[in-house]
Specification:
The complex is a heterodimer of chains A (about 525) and B (about 375). Chain A is about 65% helix and about 0% strand. With about 525 residues, chain A is mainly α. In chain A, strands 1-2 form a two-stranded parallel sheet. The N and C termini of chain B lie far apart (about 70 Å). Helices cover about 40% and strands about 10% of the residues of chain B. Classes of the chains: A mainly alpha (about 525), B alpha/beta (about 375). The interface between A and B is medium-sized, with 33 and 34 residues.
Chain lengths: ~525, ~375
């Protein structure tokens, strides 16, 4: 079930919300069971096949977690064995469902070169959210092994994994953030302040997804659809499509994360903020501190640092960065384009760190570029990398790069013919319309370019969800509802009410979230 | 916090009320819920014309009429089939003009017809030459316009506001008339009757200016070779082959199909013949003959009548219903099955009484006379 569907908004959510707080009045246990069952229903809605996998994964990991954190005499002897078995089992399941066919396709390429017959692919459907719930549980196991955590209540553990706001596409949550909240009695009581903040975050997220991401996404889809039909993209439509994708994935995923944070707040549970205006970043290091923060944190804590982090010298640090990002790329999807995307970002990060180190003591060359230049270089690098992320194959990505570099010429609107004599012939300009005839009814080049400009302005100027509710969200730190500055902004509240209605009006074409495929 | 919640609620309710009012208006004018539109047209005691101002992909609408009436005869084609009238026939008839603008669309329609249990006995398929031009992509019509909306949505509101704002005479929407449906139906006084035929009242009465005065727009299109008028030497044999397969499929479904090339206006016909840049038209006819596919070629309107026919056209490539009455009579002379279902007496009277006009008198004219809207100096 998707957050941006009528059945979720007007069926599932109100029922679960009312049931949760009604039961919460009488019993935390019943409310917890209700929320767990609702989460399983949410996950299995429309396709029950993956539900047994999720349930068995929870049961097995809870069992191993209990063994790993056991303080019984003699238990320590086998802890290392247990942790290896548990993590290998998780990775095997993930590998089978997500990477088996990728491996077979790769082997088949080699077999083809050696004139051997190819191996048949495995008929397996990728369970939604498998990467998210597997990584969440691996982190739990690692921390149990290090005796940082000990969970005794199966219900709380089950809820921690299945909790529907984060189950399918994150944020990747840490048990230390969640378990104490599920254990707290106040979580099961209705808190108007949290509900208000939840509505704010949810409305912003819904608007990002259904208004901006789905709208601008048509233009990146158009570019890649035309590519698959053999149309070579020219300069302007390549850049429009690539930039459109950069904004589509940002508003799609950050919209989802905001909705998850908002929904969770409705149920009294605080989830971590996942995005912090990544397109305002002035270098790649900064970008990764702002983009998919929960994944970056996970990769840092459970991969980069165990690999040695920056403790083993400069060269090893850069290698660790690249390896971490390569695996981060592979986590996103079973394709070489994702691996390359991760590798490219790892390389960017290594260059960024090296630059900082190299010029940190130089008086002539600054260790960081002027902000505007830094922002420009970072943005172009990120957009170039997104092409790899979006492309189905390397060839498709190369076709887009050729277009972006002007190697397929420039197509301009027909009315400009005869008005731009001054442009040199080597630009290979044709006056055939920016998208020629390959643009569907209801779309236009002007709209595409206008949307890219609009999204650029919005992502640079407007405050993000973290800015709006980030400080308010720390409700446990003594803020009372009346003191929250956000609640004094009545015009904003009115605007959000209007935005909610406008977003509901945009639900007629329910599109999947991009991160559902991971 | 209470004031925050109140303001949020105020925003929600005020915008919700606006949306509700606008949705009710769009429902009333027939822009939401296609089934409701078709039902209103079919059950109305007086003729109701419908034309959406939002969706110009007529497939869903026409197919819905077809499914409702399950006729014995149908007309298939692009907008160049829309003037074939129910009154020409003694039997039940639905005009599916506008559903098929290339071979791919034809395949889709044939497939959709095949799934319904009751099929027509006879189909008149009006074919446009340019469907087969090998210089035009075979998938050129693949992108559909926006889907016919079932629920109010942001884009629907945007299109509706755009459609109303673009028309100076939006006062016609107040009060909403009972005999017109769809924003274009009301604003332009034009639309489809309950059998799918198209009536453009505002153009023929001079209320709205023609966009093809003296056929200049069509002439220019052919001369520049733009859009559907792209010149070409050959017809794409793959498309001819797919077309032949679609015809076979229709015959195998028990639908006797008559293939017709509808006429171009006389000056345009001469222009095409003179230019020599449209060799694919001749090539198409040759390829069809080689495959033993019979067709009736009325592309030159003088084959229908030797006198001046310019006044019987809406524009350079759309004949009016008097031309289509002539086509029906000509088909009946060559095809016995067609002759059995045609109302000969009505056709003869209709042509005699309306000779020289683009639109024969109907209940939709509301007593207004046709004018020389193409400004070609003909008596109407």
């Amino acid at each position: 079930m998707a957050f941006n569907s009528y059945e979720f908004l007007f069926g599932f959510l109100p029922v679960v919300f009312c049931g949760y707080f009604f039961l919460g009045k009488w019993s935390q246990l019943l409310a917890g069971i209700w929320l767990s069952m609702a989460s399983l229903f949410f996950y299995g809605y429309g396709d029950l096949r993956a539900l047994p996998l999720l349930v068995s994964s929870i049961v097995c990991n809870y069992y191993f977690g209990a063994r790993l954190s056991s303080s019984a005499p003699g238990a320590g002897k086998y802890r290392r064995v247990y942790v290896y078995i548990a993590i290998c089992a998780n990775l095997t399941v993930l590998g089978f469902f997500k990477y088996a066919n990728f491996l077979i396709r790769t082997i088949n390429i080699l077999l083809l070169h050696a004139n051997y017959p190819p191996i048949d692919e495995v008929a397996v459907a990728l369970p939604v959210g498998i990467s998210f719930f597997t990584f969440t549980q691996i982190a739990f196991l690692a921390d149990c092994y290090q005796q940082k955590v000990r969970e005794q209540k199966f219900l709380h553990y089950g809820l921690f994994v299945t909790y529907f706001p984060h189950l399918v596409a994150g944020p990747i949550i840490h048990h230390s953030q969640m378990m104490p909240q599920f254990a707290r009695a106040s979580t099961y009581r209705m808190d108007p302040a949290k509900i208000c903040l939840g509505l704010v975050a949810f409305t912003l997220g819904l608007a990002k997804k259904v208004i901006l991401a789905d709208w601008i996404g048509q233009y990146s889809d158009l570019l890649f659809r035309n590519l698959s039909q053999g149309v070579a993209p020219t300069l302007i439509n390549s850049w429009t499509g690539a930039l459109a994708y950069a904004f589509q994935i940002y508003y799609d995923f950050s919209g989802y994360s905001d909705m998850a944070v908002g929904l969770s707040l409705l149920f009294g549970v605080v989830l971590p903020i996942n995005f912090n205006s990544p397109y305002k970043a002035t270098d790649i290091i900064d970008f990764w501190r702002r983009w998919h923060i929960s994944l970056s944190t996970f990769l840092r804590d459970y991969l980069y640092i165990p690999l040695g982090g920056n403790r083993l010298g400069g060269a090893r640090r850069y290698l660790n960065l690249i390896v971490t990002m390569l695996l981060g790329g592979l986590w996103h999807g079973a394709s070489w384009t994702f691996v390359l995307w991760g590798g490219v970002h790892g390389f960017f990060l290594a260059v960024n760190h090296a630059w900082r180190k190299l010029f940190s003591r130089s008086t002539r060359i600054p260790s960081s570029l002027p902000k505007v230049v830094g922002w420009g270089v970072t943005s172009v690098s990120v957009v170039f990398a997104w092409v790899l992320f979006r492309a189905g194959t390397l060839r498709e990505a190369m076709d887009v790069y050729r277009g972006m570099l002007g190697m397929n010429g420039i197509a301009l609107p027909v009315p400009l013919a005869g008005r731009v004599h001054f442009l040199p012939a080597w630009l290979r300009i044709e006056f055939i319309g920016i998208w020629n005839e390959s643009i569907p009814a209801g779309m236009s080049a002007t709209e595409g370019i206008g949307l890219v400009i609009l999204c650029t302005v919005l992502s640079l100027i407007l405050p993000n969800t973290a800015d709006l509710i980030g400080t308010e969200i720390r409700l446990d730190q003594g803020n009372s509802a009346g003191q929250m500055p956000l609640f004094r902004r009545r015009k904003l509240a009115f605007g959000l009410g209007v935005l909610f209605v406008v977003s509901i009006l945009s639900l007629h074409r329910v599109t999947r979230f991009i991160y559902f495929q991971f | 916090m209470k004031s925050f919640i109140r303001s949020f609620g105020a925003g929600l309710c005020s915008s919700g009320l606006i949306v509700l009012a606008f949705s009710l208006f769009l429902y009333r004018v027939g822009e939401i819920d296609l089934d409701h539109v078709v039902a209103r047209q079919q059950t109305s005691t007086k003729g109701v014309l419908f034309c959406s101002g939002i969706n110009h992909d007529f497939y869903a609408y026409k197919y819905s009429i077809y499914r409702t009436l399950q006729p014995e005869a149908i007309a298939i084609g692009s907008s160049r089939a829309m003037e074939m009238r129910r009154r020409f026939f003694k039997t039940s008839f639905v005009n599916l003009g506008g559903c098929v603008s290339n071979v791919q669309h034809l395949e889709r329609l044939v497939s959709d017809i095949s799934v319904l249990p009751n099929r027509p006995r006879l189909a008149v398929l009006f074919v446009d030459f340019w469907w087969f031009n090998d210089r035009i992509s075979s998938d050129s019509g693949k992108y559909q316009a926006v889907e016919y909306p079932r629920y109010p949505s942001l884009s629907l509101f945007g299109y509706a506001i755009g459609a109303v704002a673009a028309h100076p005479n939006w006062g016609r929407l107040i009060p909403i008339p009972n005999d017109r449906l769809g924003l274009m139906g009301i604003l332009f006084n034009a639309g489809f009757d309950r059998f799918g035929s198209f009536y453009d009242i505002s153009t023929i009465t001079g209320e709205v200016g023609s966009n093809d005065v003296q056929f200049k727009t069509t002439e220019s299109g052919f001369e520049k070779g733009e859009g559907r008028f792209v010149p070409g030497r050959y017809a794409d044999p793959r498309l001819v082959s797919r077309f032949a397969l679609a015809l076979d499929r229709l015959e195998s479904l028990g639908i006797h199909t008559i293939v017709v090339f509808p006429p171009l206006a006389p000056p345009i016909c001469k222009l095409v013949a003179r230019s020599g840049r449209f060799g694919y038209i001749g090539d198409l006819k040759t390829q069809l003959s080689n495959r033993h596919l019979s067709f009736m070629d009325f592309s030159d309107p003088q084959t229908l009548y030797s006198g001046d026919l310019r006044g019987e056209f809406f524009d350079g490539f759309h004949g009016g219903d008097v031309i289509y009455a002539r086509i029906a009579r000509a088909i009946a002379q060559q095809n016995t099955e067609f002759r059995q279902i045609i109302d000969d007496d009505y056709l003869n009277r209709f042509i005699r009484e309306n000779h020289g006009r683009a639109l024969g008198s109907t209940e939709y004219n509301e007593g207004r006379r046709e004018v020389d809207f193409l400004k070609i100096g003909v008596e109407k």
